[in-house]
Amino acid sequence: MSAQPVHPHGPRRIPRNAEGIAAALSGERRREFHAELLVAAPDEAKGVLLRWWGRATLAADDDRGPRVAVALAGQMPTVSVGEMLERRRAAGLPV
User: Fold this and answer.
1) 10-residue stretch averages of pLDDT, the chain, 95 residues long
2) pTM to 2 decimals?
3) What is the C-alpha to C-alpha distance for residues 33 and 51, in angstroms, rounded to an integer?
4) Host domain of residue 31
């Protein structure tokens, strides 16, 4: 018996490595990612991975349309840094 949820919530998690990012992208986007990563200097590679990881994560999010529309309309709920730190403390997470 598995403890995995039948319907996971939220976007699919994309590993923050070249293989995970490439697997989440399709067609031309994957080729663009590989091309950019191949020409990146070693000290630039981390930035390329982080930038494309964000794009891959967004591409894997089936609810991205409404989420992007809310963000572009300036209606995305926000939280202050102080409130976020308090939430992390309350949850026993490092701050």
Assistant:
1) 53 88 94 97 96 89 81 89 95 91
2) 0.60
3) 10
4) 18-90
